[in-house]
Amino acid sequence: MRGIVRVSSRIAHRLLASLPALVGVLVFTFLLMRVLPGDPAVFFASSPTAGPEEIQQIRVSMGLDRSIPEQLVLYLRDVLTGNLGRSMSTGQPVATDLAQRLPASLELTLAALVLALACAIPLGVMAALRPGSAVDHGVRLLCSIGVCAPTFVCGLVLIYVFYVVLGIAPDPTGRIGAFDAPPPDITGLLLVDYALVGDFESWLSAVSQLILPAVTMALFVLAPLARMTRASMLIALGSDFIRTARSVGLPPFKVIVGYGLRNALLPIITITGVVFSTMLGANVLVEKVFAWPGVGSYALDALVSSDYAPVQGFVLLMAMIFVVVNLTIDTLYGFADPRVSLR
Amino acid sequence: MSEHLISVTDLHVGFSTRRGAVKAVRGISFELVPGATLGVVGESGSGKSVTAYAITRLLDRAGEITSGQVSYFGRNLGSLTEAEMRRLRGSAISMIFQNPRAALNPIRCVGQQIADALNAHGRLTRAEQRERTLQLLRDVMLTDVERIFRSYPHELSGGMCQRIMIALAIACEPKLLIADEATTGLDVTTQKVVMDLLSSLVAERGMGLILITHDLGLAARYCGEIAVMREGQIVEKGAVDTIFGHPRHEYTKRLIAASPTADSTIEDLVPEGEAERFAAPAPMKVSGAPLLLEVRNLSKNFSGFAAVSDVSFTLAAGESLGLVGESGSGKSTISRIVTRLLDKTAGEISFKGESIGEVPATRFNSHRARRDIQIVFQDPHESLNPRYTAFDSIAHPLRTLEKSLPREELNRRVRECADRVGFPAELLTRFPHQLSGGQKARIGIARAIATRPSLLVLDEPTAALDVSVQAIVLRLLDNLRKEGGLAFLFVSHDLNVVRMLCDRVVVLQAGKVVEAGRAADVFMKPTSEYTRTLLQAVPSFSFRARAKVESPVEI
Amino acid sequence: MSATVQHVVWTIRANPVTGVAAAGLAVLLVLAVFGPWLQPHDPLASNVSMALLPPSSQYWAGTDQLGRDIFSRLIAATRLDLAIAASAVSLSFLAGTFIGSIAGYMGGRLDRVVGSVVDVLMAFPLFVMAMALVAVLGNRVENIILATAFINLPFYIRFSRAEVNARRGLGWVEAARACGDSHLKIVLCSLVPNILPAMAIQVSLNLGWAILNAAGLSFLGLGITAPTAEWGIMVAEGARFILSGHWWLVAFPGAALMLTVLCFNLLGDGLRDILDPRMRT
């Protein structure tokens, strides 16, 4: 009980504390829009040859003739009502586009994170249990390679090996195979949706589409996670309370997992948050390589074609995800460590 | 053979390091009968803790028992498998460690940790585990055990954590308890409570106790037998009265001499041969000297918490004043404020008749009184910049505070300071990590006297040093004061040291002055209850003083 | 100081990988400086008749879709990639160490503000931020450097802040004040030199990261544009031909990137062993 009260008040506190950050991002994206080269009104004009009157009209309708603070207020109002503007390239409201594409990115990122954690924690623990051993050196080598291999090169190499040479991977073009039924639109996460409607075949096909990009991304974050696991496990195993646990004769499993890993998890939780946001960034690269229809590739396309409303929307979305991730991490941390209290 | 609770025969322990094998323990032997108490004393690096870990086979990865045998009731522990050894830990041999809060799992409630230990050695139901744990908590004299069961280590005081550690160690009724510096770092009053508890539990349950400590007084008060260790060997062992009353080995004699007691003087600390290096100057006349420092109604708050409240004292030129108190008494805060490294909240500080309390600490570095008030810090290792050579460290205040000093003059002054503190001139080019603790302490002092200050603030200058080094440093400080007319503000938790070094004493508790007066008066005829408690808690090993602490083990 | 030399020798002998990494970086440096004289072909000269040739004795790493020699382009790119990484890292190192150590030393409100700003920045997807910055500032090399420097900045601030914070309460820092040093002098003359070894490790690891970042940006078409020889662009151009089996267009620039970053990282690890005071006795 004590724990729940402590953690929930901490979350409330953190939620309040993250508001300034959110507002900061809002203002930042707004200013970003302002300093962008070119006149937004020209972008929104019906044709490249629009006359000055038409542009002036758009200007007024967009509120661009008002002072910057006034525009900021207007912008904030728009954002609060969910109006993120319209994308020029898709012609749809940015909010709709993002909502359609977010599940693809989330599915990829989460799958990769689970994969990475599932490999990194055992590897890190094994390395920490025998520092200096062959296992330790092996993990260290794997981490070095993982850190050094650029995500996009990794993805391309995987495509070459598994698609071009071995031919066992599906065509690296998106989430859904060419011959699959259109997905049921429930949560947007394909693996969940297919499982919900019981379409096992399509589920497998979705997995096969997901596996290469997810592995690419997992390799990218494996190194920091495994290194942190190893390091924090070494610290935990070297601490006084482990010595105490051994001195009263606790069984080895209890000492290593119950006392050691349980304590080592705290820094791992923290770094998982950092890793998650790194993955959001790396998403852009992986989505481009695998033609994955996520928010990253959407933002990139918009960026390259100077379509700024989607970019703004994307940055805002990232900021919101960042707040959610931080809260999740905080909650987990709060439950994992009785020492944290509300500040 | 098998009537021995534990017998150690010709034990050798080696550590493999980068520089090759290091022999930490070199052939030690001792026995312990059930219920006996053995104190293993020695200075740092003597191998006393390593011995304890070798007995329980808890040496860290680099360490290894290279030869010798440890037997528990005749059973050779070296021949056991790790699983068999694990079953003996906790149920046959238990340990208590230094720094109790770190020794407990920070994210598991303490009751559960004790229950884990019970669970490791027997099948108990959940309710039985809980009942046993609560009983154990009561056994170690804790009240409100239900609440403590659910508490985490960070919610408890150091003394309470150590009691929980004791409960954990005795949970599975071991026959031997090894306490490794179990009360080092605790305040003397807490130390007394914990040690009294420990020794009565040991006596009640007929356990054997090995008390590993650097504190001779502690060993003398609580142990029946003593083994003195040095450089991995036992130099002398025997009954406590014999060892401390009639020490035979040279090292034991030196160790005993160096340990401050209730009636020792500075001159007693350093044995004859080495004392010659300190020519005993005539003591300065203190009475009638002009007032150097006057502190009136000093207060300091840290975000609402009053660390120091309404403290006043004076210090005459060439006088030595001791500030005594336990942790949290505000003594270090006062030393920082007087040195003008920290700003006060209220009160006045006047130095040589000039009010210096109003100058912000941030700007005091360019004040002309800066060179007149200097400080020596607690940990000699941490107080030296690792990138400065010994010469640079001593020259530092001269370079900043006496800017126009020509090069030869600077060299001369640094060498003169090094000479005054007995630091060999040929070591001046060394970096701190290439020097011993005692040498680093000397540099710290040389740096502080380099600008020829009239007030030297000493903040626990010997707390991190071994007693034999402490003895030499104390002797050095005393000489510096007597020959140089320096005034000392000596901050310490060690009453014996303060008694020897100071003319007058201020006793502090929770930021307030509880007693002040001439050192001899305060220590011989304390007027406040707190001072009396403090004095009684100081373990004293002196053979003469032992009459007072007849047999606490049988309590 | 022969003890230091001994220590370095010992570390390299115990961990020969560090020596290999240092040698690898030396080669890269030579390529960066003397590249123009070492290229067997003109890195920009296209020859469509020689397009997409696999590696051979004439074209060691094959040719690309325009018939340019990939090996020569790899060498030409070394200078650009290393220069971007080096200038970005020096910028963020200088600014970050300064801000971080002052905040860490002063503590109080300034420190808390700096700390939370850094936390927010670091939790935000930095690569996205770099993308946005380059897009806003324009596709130029300077802007890639600025963007990379900017996203590295929080790491240096946080790192130096933590390192200084761990030392500010130590006796020798207080002693420096008792010796008459001002706060600024203590930070710049006492604390910063003491955290430099730790920062050196960070710089080495960071150089690799900066290279990956810049390459990632140009892979996406931000920053440096064709036909400039740059590893990221080369991979991006080669990506279009991977499905048709022309692996060498991606593999060689990819390997160049990877090896370079690997060298920096291994050197960082080695430096950690050399400079870690706990490894010294």
Characterization of the model:
The complex is a heterotrimer of chains A (343), B (555) and C (281). With 343 residues, chain A is mainly alpha-helical. Chain A has a single domain (94-336), classed as Orthogonal Bundle (MetI-like fold), CATH 1.10.3720. Chain A contains 13 helices and no strands. Helix content of chain B is 36%, strand content 24%. Chain B has 21 helices and 20 strands. In chain B, helix 8 (188-205) crosses helix 21 (529-537) and helix 17 (437-449) runs parallel beside helix 18 (467-484). Chain C has a single domain, classed as MetI-like fold, CATH 1.10.3720.10. Chain C has helices at residues 2-14, 16-38, 70-106, 108-123, 126-137, 141-168, 171-178, 183-219, 231-239, 248-275. Chain A binds chain C through residues 21, 24-25, 32, 35-37, 144-145, 147-153, 156-157, 159-160, 163-164, 273-274, 277-278, 280-282, 284-285, 288-289, 299-300, 303-304, 311, 314-315, 318-319, 322, 325-326, and chain C through 120, 122-129, 131-132, 135-136, 138, 208, 212, 215-216, 219-222, 232, 235-236, 238-239, 242-243, 245, 247, 250-251, 254, 257-259, 261-262, 265-266, 269.
